[in-house]
Amino acid sequence: MHKNSKSFQVQKMFDQIAENYDLMNYIMSLGNHKKWEQEIISSNINKDIKILDIACGTGSLTKELINITSQKNVTGLDFSESMICLAQNKNINNLILGDSHHIPIKSNTFELITIAYGIRNFENLSNALNEIKRCLNKNGTLKIIEIIKPKNTLRSIIFKIGFNVFAPILGMIISRNIKAYRYLPKSANLFLSKDSLYDLLNSHGFKNITIKQKLFGSVILLETSV
Question: Regarding the domain delimited by 6-225, which CATH topology (the fold level of the hierarchy) does it fall under?
Answer without folding.
Answer: Rossmann fold (3.40.50)
